[in-house]
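Standup notes, structure subgroup. Blocker cleared on the aspartic acid input:
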Amino acid sequence: MKTGRRQFLSLGTSLVACGTSSISRAAEGAPAVPGTDLPLIVSTWPFGRPANEAALAAILAGGSLLDGVEQGIHVPELDAGNKSVGLGGLPNDAGVVQLDACIMSGPGHRAGSVAALEGIVHPISAARRVMEKTPHVMLVGEGARMFALEQGLASRPNDTAAAYEAWRKKRAEKAAVKPATEKNHDTIALLILGADGNICGGCSTSGWGGKLPGRVGDSPIIGSGLYVDNEVGAAGATGLGENVMRYCGSFLVVELMRQGLHPQEACLEVIRRIAKKDPKGMGISVSFVALDKQGRYGAAGSAAGFQYAVTNRKTSTVLKAPGVGNRDIGPVGGNQSPK
Ligand code: ASP
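Run returned:
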């Protein structure tokens, strides 16, 4: 335990030195991370970098890969400035924050998930407990909240009856859902390849700001927002969930890697496939991150400008993914400031 902490502290300098100024375009097919540099941690958006570093610290301190996923994702979940993950995220059309999360363990092919969860500080921990403490994969809404409370997870007051009543009245006058833009949704999807060759991942989001109450996106859906296959690799999604979940996006990325595609090429190919079928074409607003069993990683967006974070024992950085379309979603993409 102590050795792990010392190792991380000595790594601290190089992590700090790799600021967001190190943003660079990912090489076509980033080289594999050598086994000695594992774990490899890949996550969505610049706000994934401090999450990756927390995940690495947890693992170097002797934690499991699942501890890494959980503690890494705790970082954006706790960040009040993050408008798309955790209770600081954008609320639904009734003014209530509803959270989605899932976790997947390569060993044993286990999964847990929560959706439309209100008032719980760490939905990723609720998802992990669903996986570890119940015979189920997914709990939603009030049932998920009661389960999380019963498990002793931290909560915030959740007296939302008045908010929903006001929304019901407003809706009777005018039914409209706030259109999704690149500014009102994002997700942390975080993937880890361990030094032992095992793979785990997790996903957490407040989803589409202004969504209909009860709307669930891709993020807590195994195979859509996240998928892990311990023999092959893992993939996670961010972007408009409606355009990911109809295509089982993350599952498809992993299946293409199984057929031999490099993680980055697999992400690009899934976006091309979705865009070909989808009436919105390249306007689908989706991005993927992926890593494989060989320690290779990559990402791609339907638009240029999607950034993702990559961390291992030697380095921690934010890279710019190639976009399939020409539209640029800007340096940050979502509604947060780069950290
Ligand atoms: N995928 C998330 C959702 O649709 C949002 C995002 O990642 O931008 O809820």
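Discussed briefly. The domain at 5-320 is CATH 3.60.20.30 (Glutamine Phosphoribosylpyrophosphate, subunit 1, domain 1).
Next: hand off to the docking folks.
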